[in-house]
Amino acid sequence: MPHDHHDHDHVHPEGLSPSGHPYRTDNDAPLSYWQRMEIAVRELLVEKGHVTPAEIAAQIDAMDARSPANGAAVVARAWTDPAFKARLLENASEASREMGFDIGPLHLIAVENTQDTHNLIVCTLCSCYPRNLLGLPPDWYKTRAYRSRAVREPRAVLREFGLDLPDHVTVRVHDSTADMRYIVLPARARGTDGMTEAELTALVTRDSMIGTGVPRQP
Amino acid sequence: MPRLMYMSDWDGRRWHDMGGQDAGPVPMDGHDFALWEKRIDALMVLCGQKGLFTVDGLRRALEDMGEEAFETMSYYERWIAAVNQNLIEAGAYSLEELAGRMDEVAQRGPTYGEAQGDG
Amino acid sequence: MAERVRVRTLTPPGHVRAPWYLRGKVGVIERPLGAFANPEQLAYGLPAEEKPLYRVRFTMADVWGEGAEAPNDTLDAELYGHWLERLDAHAA
């Protein structure tokens, strides 16, 4: 996105989230109109009793705690526990909660990759994403190029991500048009038979759960 | 890219409804988010939880801002504009209050760090 | 047997969640998802009716015709009942 203007990588001491994550701060760039609006809206909402600073900080903290690692843990559990995998495919929201992840009201559907099926997730109308499990989406997921092309030429898009699928594999694209969100349950890599759940978790990439990638090889 | 056409010839397809259109390669570059952007994200979630407006209201405002906004503003710039639009409509505060506060914020200093407040 | 539906070819001006590229296309109901508040009302801050939501599966040939990248690949989307016409209504 050419209009993003985050040129400053400095991390200031005050730029730490409550959980200690460094923010990529823009604190020394000239104050923009939209930043002024953010400050004003936030202060007015606090003053009028709609939200508290503690709630805002807690929400930022909660989102910072959500990352692809959460989804990777779910995937690795499904790879090692057939009963869990069945529950995941039946109701991915409940299965994620069962593992202790706070996913709020997220309605999650897991779609399984196999030897002959590859799933790909997109949102053509905006950029819906299972953020309450995986955290915020990557920038490319929100671009015109991905949103436009993933439903019409998914195989060409996948080749740009380095994934060249053979003809015998059926591609199933999922357009997140309404209330459901999707996560791909990638196929477990060959040569991982003796690995522990923790070791398997490290193989699961964000893109493999969106469908634009496959898990790392051990 | 924005496509100019005479509105009398319009078929009704809206700019954001882009599935299946031609487009170039997927840009792979990414970045993480600044504090002011995370605050906007948090405000949206909290406003939804408090019943001030819904994510559908956010999307409606983003869509109504049009294609030019999509092409010229960053993601969270568009979000704060859409959040504010919904809050004005919900009566959470008035335009007069917003205008006064934005002006006051500008007086605090030339950078976000100086102007951000402590919320 | 899977129930066939056609996405209605409507062109309202406001906030709707039925994508343009699927309007008029025929698919099968993959699964019903339950009832959800109508986003076409929520978007305007209005009280919203509960509407049935379905996951509908199309083949790429259904959607893109001759130009499909791979005709047997599939596309799933969630569509509200008021955007769908049932094609098998007389079959039973």
What characteristics describe this protein?
heterotrimer; A: 218 residues; alpha/beta; Nitrile Hydratase, Chain A; two-stranded parallel sheet; 10 helices; B: 119 residues; Cyclin A, domain 1; globular; nitrile hydratase activity (chain A); lyase (chain A); CN_Hdrase_a/SCN_Hdrase_g_sf (chain A); transition metal ion binding (chain A)
Proportion in helices of chain B: 55-70%
* Sheet with the most strands, sense and barrel status of chain A: 2 strands, parallel
- Return the CATH architecture of the largest domain in chain A: Alpha-Beta Complex
Number of strands of chain A: 4
Order of helices and strands of chain A: HHHHHEEHHHEEHH
Structural class of chain A: alpha/beta
What proportion strand of chain B? under 5%
Task: Choose one word for the global shape of chain A.
Answer: globular
Mean pLDDT of chain B: 94
Supply the number of helical segments of chain B: 6
Q: What integer value in Å does the Rg of chain A equal?
A: 19 Å
**SS content category of chain B:** mainly alpha
Helix proportion of chain A: 25-40%
Domain Nitrile hydratase beta subunit (chain C): 3-85
Protein name (chain C): Nitrile hydratase
Organism (chain C): Roseovarius tolerans
Family (chain A): Belongs to the nitrile hydratase subunit alpha family.
Describe the structure.
The complex is a heterotrimer of chains A (218), B (119) and C (92). Helix content of chain A is 39%, strand content 11%. The longest helix of chain A is centred in the N-terminal third of the chain and has 15 residues. Chain B has a single domain, classed as Nitrile hydratase, beta subunit (Cyclin A, domain 1), CATH 1.10.472.20. With 92 residues, chain C is mainly beta. Chain C has one domain: SH3 type barrels. Helix content of chain C is 10%, strand content 39%. The relative contact order of chain C is 0.28. The model of chain C has no long low-confidence stretch (mean pLDDT 95). Chains in contact: A-B, A-C, B-C. At the A-B interface, helix 1, helix 2 and helix 7 of A face helix 1, helix 3, helix 4, helix 5 and helix 6 of B. Strand 3 of chain A pairs parallel with strand 4 of chain C. Chain A: Keywords: Iron, Lyase, Metal-binding. Chain A: GO terms for molecular function: nitrile hydratase activity; transition metal ion binding.
